[in-house]
Specification:
There is one protein chain. The chain is built from 17 helices and 28 strands. It is of the alpha+beta class and 559 residues long. The protein has 3 domains: 248 residues, Bira Bifunctional Protein, Domain 2 (BirA Bifunctional Protein, domain 2, 2-Layer Sandwich); 71 residues, no CATH class; 86 residues, Rossmann fold (3-Layer(aba) Sandwich), CATH 3.40.50.800. The strands form 8 sheets. It has a 9-stranded mixed beta sheet. A 5-stranded mixed beta sheet has the order 25-24-26-27-28, sandwiched between helices. The protein has a 3-stranded antiparallel beta sheet with strand order 4-9-8. Strand 18 and strand 19 form a beta hairpin. Helix 12 crosses helix 13. The two termini are 46 Å apart.
Length: 559
């Protein structure tokens, strides 16, 4: 959820955006061709910062020990997203200005007239639009077309000519992890719980991209799908967060400051693993430089959640655009795996063993694969699943609707199954807990929170107090002058630093030393190393710290 920006932050936001563009953090894409809404470049500094945030995110979750990274294609066949429900449901409601024809999201237009317009259906939005008559953000008129739904996915073709298959650019990374479940299950030796993570591009054809990096058409996202047995007892170690107070807004409790353990014990957080991921998410956000006082977790109201979800929380971060949803942590039940299993007829199940064997009487039907396979071809798997759910007193022939096709099941296609089995376990569809991160939104707030302006000699002086974990440049080496051997020493130090794994050092000899310090502060370099005349004499350098401005002398050999 994106909250409105306060008026008094507009000038600061303009200066921040200008600096980010000037210093190569974030800038409009294809600007020399007029640009394109909802598309941004990460420049030389932004690209490095983004990669460090990505790597921190990967390391954060892989450190759990039962989470592995995978990478799936961004081009996705039509059938995958039809099975997941995206083809039918992944839409936003839009309306057009009858004066200037500018198209807007209906819920965005109505944010000033309803506390949560995202939760309203089409008819409710239309009623509110008619009643409130909001101004068009482009021309100021108040006349709108009827609200309609638009699917947000970008269409494409997989293959050329008539042999091409319909497909989409993926709107999320999750579906590839669900369809890869059998491989993941084998990889983790068929033992739950385990997780898969993926980080990469997602694409949504937003109706009205706005607020810079907050709503994009191509964006960087990172998701974790954590597969659990819903009947197994789960115990997580919360000891490292015992003294941490989180700001949490429960559906029934309102805003409270509480520990995650108390939030779970009190029933506000409805599943312990959801609570565990809330705490881990908070830890990650603080680790990349988000201000702890500007993070809160908001529970979805019942009418916000998908019908299959049992609990869902958003991590919201406050910045120049107000409170913005940056992470969603949802208990998705078995919806995703079950949807793909029903659509394909392929098992996406795990097995649990019983404490004691059970005897069960089987009295039902299955298909005779030798006859049903050739008869139903690609539908054979789905027909088999449907037949095995039929009661024992079913008569044939029987018509069933399979994938919107009416098929006739003849007596020759099926065979009776009557036996008593001793079962040592059972197959079940795992449930999924999903933390989903909007990397671009998080990066925006890292920069927003780090941006600091101080008065220096009557002018505003900018310092980016970026967390050292994500700074684009770790050190900058500055020769006082490029003569008398100072330039050579500085270049040797810069080469030495860059040879260290994971360290990025920059060399800057352009302009006065004061201007070079200012440039370094503006991109968040934590430490400047200055080579001067004394360096030539005694092999020492000056170390200047960004946040304090303090300078100390150090031997080059001790760097």
């Amino acid at each position: 959820m994106v909250r409105a920006m306060s008026d008094d932050s507009g000038a600061r936001l303009e200066r921040l955006s200008g600096m980010l563009k000037r210093r190569g953090f974030i800038l409009p894409a294809f600007e020399i061709h007029g640009g394109a809404k909802g598309l941004y470049d990460f420049g030389p500094n932004g690209g490095r910062l983004r990669n460090r945030v990505n790597q921190m995110w990967l390391n954060h979750w892989i450190s759990m020990g039962n989470v592995s990274e995978i990478s799936c294609p961004t081009i996705t066949p039509y059938e995958v997203l039809e099975a997941s429900g995206h083809v039918g449901e992944f839409s936003d409601f839009m309306t057009g200005c009858l004066s200037c024809e500018e198209v807007s999201r209906a819920d965005t237009l109505l944010e000033d007239f309803h506390p949560n317009p995202d939760s309203l259906g089409k008819l409710e939005l239309q009623e509110l639009l008619n009643k409130s008559s909001p101004q068009c953000p482009s021309c100021g008129e108040k006349s709108w077309s009827d609200i309609s739904a638009q699917n947000l996915m970008f269409n494409t073709k997989i293959g050329a000519g008539t042999s091409g298959r319909d497909g989409f650019l993926r709107p999320e990374t999750a579906q590839g992890m669900f369809t890869s479940f059998p491989v993941l299950y084998r990889h983790f030796r068929e033992r739950l719980p385990f997780g898969a993570i993926q980080i990469g591009k997602g694409y949504r054809n937003e109706i009205s991209p706005r607020q810079g990096m907050i709503r994009l058409r191509e964006f960087n996202m990172a998701e974790l799908e954590y597969f659990i047995d819903p009947e197994a007892s789960i115990s997580h170690d919360f000891s490292s967060w015992s003294g941490v107070k989180l700001t949490m807004i429960g559906e029934n409790e309102g805003e409270v400051s509480t520990s995650i353990v108390d939030a779970i014990k009190g029933g506000m957080v409805r599943h312990e693993t959801v609570g565990f991921f809330i705490a881990r998410t908070y830890e990650f956000l603080i680790g990349v430089g988000i201000d702890p006082s500007r993070v809160r977790f908001r529970q979805h109201e019942s009418n916000e959640m998908a019908h299959y979800a049992t609990d869902c929380w958003d991590a919201e971060i406050h910045g120049s655009y107000g409170w913005v949803e940056c992470v969603g942590i949802a208990h998705r039940g078995c919806y995703d795996l079950e949807a793909h299993e029903k659509y394909t007829g392929k098992s996406l199940r795990a097995r649990r063993e019983f404490a004691m064997p059970k005897e069960v009487v089987i009295d039902g039907w299955t298909t005779d694969s030798a006859v049903a396979g050739p008869a139903f071809r690609s539908l054979a798997g789905k027909v088999k699943l449907a037949v095995e759910e039929l009661p024992s007193d079913t008569s044939f022939p029987l018509e069933l609707s399979i994938e919107d096709q009416l098929v006739t099941i003849e007596q020759t296609h099926v065979k009776r199954v009557q036996r008593t089995d001793t079962l040592t376990g059972e197959w079940f569809i795992p449930h999924v807990i999903e933390p989903a991160f909007g990397i671009d939104r998080i990066i925006w707030h890292i920069l927003d929170h780090a941006y600091d302006e101080i008065e220096k000699q009557g002018e505003k002086y900018t310092i980016m107090k970026l967390n050292p974990n994500v700074v684009p440049v770790d050190y900058v080496v500055l020769p006082l002058y490029e003569k008398d051997g100072m330039g050579e020493i500085a270049r040797e130090i810069n080469t030495m630093l860059n040879s260290r794994f994971g360290v990025v050092s920059s060399f800057d000899a352009s302009g006065s030393i004061g201007r070079r310090y200012a440039r370094a502060d503006e991109i968040g370099v934590p430490v400047c190393i200055t080579v001067d005349h004394q360096s030539v004499e005694d092999e020492t350098v000056t170390i200047r710290t960004r946040d304090t401005g303090q300078q100390v002398r150090l031997k080059i050999s001790e760097l």
